[in-house]
């Protein structure tokens, strides 16, 4: 299944992804803001990244700030937020970002 990601200048949005090909990672490098999906914390899912997988991709891409979206109900926002790298945050309804 093909999933499209979008880069608008210094902001990139990739959701409903399970992996990002190396060629696409190269296209995403240098963004100020990256938005990725993360359905579960560390449980595998056949069609979506989990928080651990998303953080690994974020480290490879190296954005200034990353937001995790498409979050499952089993992710406790406050608890998981404390475990994330400094430049990674859980998104929430009403969040506005600029790049």
Short characterization:
By secondary structure, this protein is an alpha/beta fold.
Note down, in words, how this protein is organized:
With 99 residues, the protein is of the alpha/beta class. Helix content is 23%, strand content 21%. It is built from three helices and five strands; from the N terminus they run E-E-H-E-H-E-H-E. It has helices at 22-28, 51-61, 77-81, and strands at residues 5-8, 11-14, 33-37, 65-69, 88-90. It has a five-stranded mixed sheet. A hairpin with a 2-residue loop joins strand 1 (5-8) and strand 2 (11-14). The protein is globular and about 30 Å long. The termini are far apart. The mean pLDDT is 94.
Topology summary:
Blueprint: E1 5-8, E2 11-14, H1 22-28, E3 33-37, H2 51-61, E4 65-69, H3 77-81, E5 88-90
Parallel strand pairs: 2-3, 3-4, 4-5
Antiparallel strand pairs: 1-2
Name the descriptors.
single chain, 23% helix, alpha/beta, 21% strand, 99 residues, 5-stranded mixed β-sheet
Q: Which parts are unreliable, with pLDDT below 50 for 5 consecutive residues or more?
A: none
What does the main sheet amount to?
5 strands, mixed
| Total number of strands | 5
Please report the number of helical segments. Answer: 3
Tell me, briefly, the overall form: globular
């Amino acid at each position: 299944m093909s999933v499209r990601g979008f880069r608008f200048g210094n902001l990139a949005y990739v959701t409903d992804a399970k992996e990002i090909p190396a060629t696409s990672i190269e296209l995403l490098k240098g963004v100020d803001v990256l938005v990725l999906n993360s359905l579960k914390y560390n449980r595998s899912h056949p069609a979506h990244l989990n928080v651990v997988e998303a953080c690994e991709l974020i480290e490879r891409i190296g954005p200034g700030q990353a937001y995790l979206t498409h979050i499952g109900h089993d992710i406790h926002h406050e608890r998981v937020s404390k475990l994330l790298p400094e430049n990674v945050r859980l998104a929430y309804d009403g969040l506005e970002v600029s790049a």
